[in-house]
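Fold this complex.
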Amino acid sequence: MWLTQAHPEVLPRDERGDVVWPGARQHWRATSPVFREHALRLCRAMTEHYRGHPAIVSWHVGNEYGCHNRFDYSDDAMHAFQDWCRERYGTIDAVNEAWGTSFWSQRLTDFGQILPPRFIGEGNFPNPGRLLDFKRFSSDMLKRFYCAERDVLAEITPDIPITTNFMISANQSALDYDDWAREVDFVSNDHYFTPGAQHIDELAYSGSLVGGFARRRPWFLMEQSTSAVNWRGVNPRKQPGELIRDSLLHTAMGADAICYFQWRQSRAGAEKFHSAMLPAAGEDSRIFYDVCELGADLRALAQAGVLGSRLRRSSVAIVYDVQSQWASEHPTTPSRDVREWTEPLDWFVAFAEHDVTTDVTPVHTTWDDYGTIVIPCVYLFDEDVADRLRKHVRGGVRAIVTYYSAIADMNDRLFLGGWPGLIGDVVGVRVEEHCPLTSMYPGALDHLDLSNGACAHDLADVVTSVDDDTQVLATFTAPPTSGTDGLPALTAHRYGDGTAAYVVAGKLGADGIARSLPCLFDALGLPLADDDAAGDVLRVVREHEDGAVFEFLFNRRDHDVAVPDIDGDVIIMSHATRTTLAPTGAIVVRR
Amino acid sequence: MWLTQAHPEVLPRDERGDVVWPGARQHWRATSPVFREHALRLCRAMTEHYRGHPAIVSWHVGNEYGCHNRFDYSDDAMHAFQDWCRERYGTIDAVNEAWGTSFWSQRLTDFGQILPPRFIGEGNFPNPGRLLDFKRFSSDMLKRFYCAERDVLAEITPDIPITTNFMISANQSALDYDDWAREVDFVSNDHYFTPGAQHIDELAYSGSLVGGFARRRPWFLMEQSTSAVNWRGVNPRKQPGELIRDSLLHTAMGADAICYFQWRQSRAGAEKFHSAMLPAAGEDSRIFYDVCELGADLRALAQAGVLGSRLRRSSVAIVYDVQSQWASEHPTTPSRDVREWTEPLDWFVAFAEHDVTTDVTPVHTTWDDYGTIVIPCVYLFDEDVADRLRKHVRGGVRAIVTYYSAIADMNDRLFLGGWPGLIGDVVGVRVEEHCPLTSMYPGALDHLDLSNGACAHDLADVVTSVDDDTQVLATFTAPPTSGTDGLPALTAHRYGDGTAAYVVAGKLGADGIARSLPCLFDALGLPLADDDAAGDVLRVVREHEDGAVFEFLFNRRDHDVAVPDIDGDVIIMSHATRTTLAPTGAIVVRR
Amino acid sequence: MWLTQAHPEVLPRDERGDVVWPGARQHWRATSPVFREHALRLCRAMTEHYRGHPAIVSWHVGNEYGCHNRFDYSDDAMHAFQDWCRERYGTIDAVNEAWGTSFWSQRLTDFGQILPPRFIGEGNFPNPGRLLDFKRFSSDMLKRFYCAERDVLAEITPDIPITTNFMISANQSALDYDDWAREVDFVSNDHYFTPGAQHIDELAYSGSLVGGFARRRPWFLMEQSTSAVNWRGVNPRKQPGELIRDSLLHTAMGADAICYFQWRQSRAGAEKFHSAMLPAAGEDSRIFYDVCELGADLRALAQAGVLGSRLRRSSVAIVYDVQSQWASEHPTTPSRDVREWTEPLDWFVAFAEHDVTTDVTPVHTTWDDYGTIVIPCVYLFDEDVADRLRKHVRGGVRAIVTYYSAIADMNDRLFLGGWPGLIGDVVGVRVEEHCPLTSMYPGALDHLDLSNGACAHDLADVVTSVDDDTQVLATFTAPPTSGTDGLPALTAHRYGDGTAAYVVAGKLGADGIARSLPCLFDALGLPLADDDAAGDVLRVVREHEDGAVFEFLFNRRDHDVAVPDIDGDVIIMSHATRTTLAPTGAIVVRR
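Structure:
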């Protein structure tokens, strides 16, 4: 408070130019030289004070960068954005070309005319290229700030590894964590459970994605909750058993440390209703007993040698691209109901229903060693990604590409000539138009049935031609007036030694994808578990360099399920027997 | 961008006083002398440059005035609003009288105290008279700006006709187009289709309204989309056939030119997902083929002589008043669910169900030559309108007046003594109270059934007395506690040589009106087609001074319908045979 | 308008710092020295002008303080808030301790760092202690302003009693009226009916609460509507009979004067659609006839001697605490669906269903003479309240305490060790966790059934232990995975000579409470009317010091109900006979 009183110029401004006042947290702009000076002085003083202290095993710098100050529209930010654009584009003409400023008379003649995307009036629409770049810039400025703090620490205590807690879950996209992950000594994450039916799947998905950013090396779970959080509109508690099960599942997905926000529940302040290891109710409480039990479980796992082991690579990769999500958030798209993040999770869940635990994999990392690559609504494409996909498929890999992929280049400029752009030769289909589906207008088309029993909502493609050697696996069934009846919904196309399936059908949801996977896999020439019990148990395997293998089994249902044959020594058996897993049950086996 | 950088004082301010920053479009205030100077210099330079160029057949000035800068609350606007009030009212006492400033201590002692309706805090309520005048003022300022640009052009190229594209559709009310229409050499309009069931009816309605503003002279369709737009939350595409059908229907309604936004779909920018004549998919596309086919159709129509012909006048006029809509948008009315624009469209559709294509007619134009005049929620009335209605009905014309008509004078001050004000003698009913209907409060009255099977929602009148010679055509059926059971819902009243029906029943919707029209027309002594197939085909006739008659037939259903007997030479037969019209079918006949 | 033109510094600022412009009403900040100077000058001039005028029987000062200017975030407000904190806490360390500023680095080193809770960015969370204090401060500043005006009047006309109109209804919590009531010579209230099913009960509840603030002395009904208001989104009219019935019910609840906003409906201005004693329709109208009839009824009541009589004290008190409501409005609680105000009303209605008209009683007044005290979601507790409850129950009184009571101290800091805090010994249960219920997340727990047939929504407690002598009256029935199946839902606990019931079950609604009251009362050892007709009639009794008793009977249903035996002289019989009450019927008897 004293700093913001002495230096109000460190406070962020919102898009209207209004001061974001102190009284909560993160009341600072990443581009403020004044704040930076004070912050680095603090870093230096603290590090020098604690240098050599035996309890310091790692520095965790800052907290959830960008949680509240992701975007800043101040003049500091404006100048920094101008510099960032100069750095990226070199000339103002290159900016004009990238952002398509000829449209709507937005041509810039000077870097000084570049503004953050400040308030343009209700119902007006921002330039997509500028908006996408501002998201990149905002991630970069926070990263630069983190790096400056990190460098002070590293200078004084060069042997202490450094991290900062990311906020990775299925519906988060604040920062470009695949980029940030290059700047930490090890990845750490904050994860808060999704209440209800998606609890376990979303948690596993997020863990897989964290592992993707960490390049499959072990990571830390820095924050989670023992029970309810406080920041949702309604904050359901965790049901009994979930506290332990969730931590074991994070471990299964690659976590080598399980921490919580927070040790002791705060009596006061904005988060006083957030659960903790030691709750407001005190030590005599279910939560504290479970925390103690978890401690024993984690000790057992550590003693069994799980630390340092790595998640076994899946045969299937689901590609994730935060920048595609950023671009698809623009208000003037075919449908605001299409947001990129739902599709990767839906594919992850659909595969789990067939007993396949997939790897969620950042778009810009290597895809080597996967037999199947899923491209779910990867809206932005460049030649590099297209070439890699082409090369992999040509070499025998199977690809599944969905609607709303390869729509635009890295500056959010549409590919011309039909979609998917750049990779039409791979998938062997040509999309002329999007077909948004909505119940917003009485009488408008609000869904499309597929011949395989699945159903598309929100968005589908209109495929008006396919290559001669493209196989149509399923078609749409719709009123003749819609112009979609009988059009391709799922296709497969031989390309080199591999096959690329194209999922025209739009948003099928996890159920619709699960229903479609058998025919897709059949066309890809791959086997797939397809009985009703296939998805009962989530299996995850961690492997140690020393040869030890740890198999984790979890119940994906809300009823008891049968345990598959266990091969190895049981280390943990929580809410389970050798034959039955209770709903929150978990088994860990070592062999 | 250079101009807003050099002269930020041209940027509008929103109601909170916040700058509306550039980065989208229309970043200028209509009252800025600086912007005006630059804009007129541009007009002059451009006109002098192109003067005499043979390709210039007309000037289309600006683009969609007021689309994004309709309201400006800057100090420039404040001063201009003070001048506008001084011009309109003469004295500050006249302003006080007009706005009823005695209420809530708003008495003004100086024109300098007049403010635009800036932010007054959440949950507070603005003065209705001031708000209505600010809407008039905002339309006037944009018109004054347009006229200044126009005058520069007219001075240099006096023989080139001038227009600007209006934004007229059923749910638009940005500007007073009946006033603007006096300032263009010919009217032109931008129209974007309503997805779903109202597609064809709303389009025909809008065309009829454009014709009303154009005083039934031919007009230009300046913009429409070949398929999806980009600015809705969800943007359904046009179904096959609608591209051609819509253009033929605009032609039928009076358009002599069919243009599109846009020729070539933009790769970049805020509207890149907006369809175009040449779509992103390229020339090998359904859209481009349809555009070419439409070109041939339009050539055939031109060769057949349709240009310059006028829409045949209907026997029924539906009165439209944008200022009534403006006034009824005020937050403190009987029900915010009542907005004027839905009612004229509902009447248009209901008549179409009985094979009557009506003329939508501005309130301040002549109503001569109509046999029936519908007054649907014309909330504002003055003596002139009342006198005209009285004179017409007395002379034999039939009138249908609905609930929420003649509620207030032109300054939005209530008529006293019972509603409808000024014309109670004509309709022969007296309304004491409004009866809002809502499901917002459990147990509150949320609808009223009529004895004729129709049903009222949102708002009804409480008619506590009718004249002795008023005929009650239908009554309400409701719980006795509501105090509305048995009250009049539809009435008719002989007045002079005519009859005036009063539709008490509130918002009946198009279905309820269609169901009520037979008994209304019976009471009015008029015939009405009333079989199930009467509304299958929309018929529109254009007549040329040389005697040529063009009849257009369209299918209003989503299934095939029978074609009525064709009398004349078929010029266009699209998705149709001589006996059957497909859902998007159209036939044009010349005789 | 001239004042805000001459002194714009009197205008409030909203939380963003934006000026709240004039053009509606209450355009002033309570802490402005400039406005205060002008306002007091006006008070003085007016009072001196009218001093001695025989028509002045009372001063009604201002109008609905805080209706639109409750919160002001200007620099004037900031300085006053700093002074208020200095006054309340003495040292900045005491502020830090009260607000828990250690959390989120909010430690203050100087009173000058204290800000009003200005805009902190979307999705960030304010400090609860500061927010609660700002609500107290805002109530205090308006009260201070009122008192200053009052004191001018009292100085000049010391014999004229002074009041100001409060805004008390079930869903209002703008000011701390129990505190304000100490500053008026008699309480007066503005009450506007709730349309639909809650109309009569909410009105009676509000009247009872007004009586609580007035310490059961008679009060004035300063404003109500004859029919519709204008400020809701939809404004249903009053149904026939409600105008008179409502006024009689206000009288029954303790009103000695029945006034209306407004005498004559305004033609113009923001409230022109607000009903009045003389409506826009004129004197020949149902409303005006009813007003006249009401006048006769009120005269009859006055002549019968009802003035000055007091509401007979109920055996049951329902405790009300506006500050608990203020605290529970904070965005980061277990569930934003829990707001304190619904619970007292639900209990009032549930008791009415069993023929008990309860007293709604402020938490900080005496609870003497009640046999039963209900503590419904009284979220804030201090030692004083806990001691009083303990003392009463120990002495034989029955208490019913609900979920979400005694959660935090007066600075909104949680009680530790299990809830309810401070009074766990009285109720004999210990709550470890809240159990929010929601349909927001598919598959999450959205309700809990009780073994007695009631059902909890929104929030329940998780009671993990009860004292040995605690009796479990009902349990939850829920899926085993939820961890709530079989847990206590209703309990009773002997404490001294009394019994305290604890309603774990969360929000049961009026129906669920009504269904649970029989078993609760049975456990409390109290009788309760429990037949289907028990709730048909609302009975209220006023008693005069001279021994006269006035019994008021109202129909709580929307159909005719039977009148209980009448004992005494019938003074009013409106929409009723001696045997039947019509839905809006009322009977007043004197004995």
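Chain B has three domains: 57-66+73-310, 316-524, 537-590.
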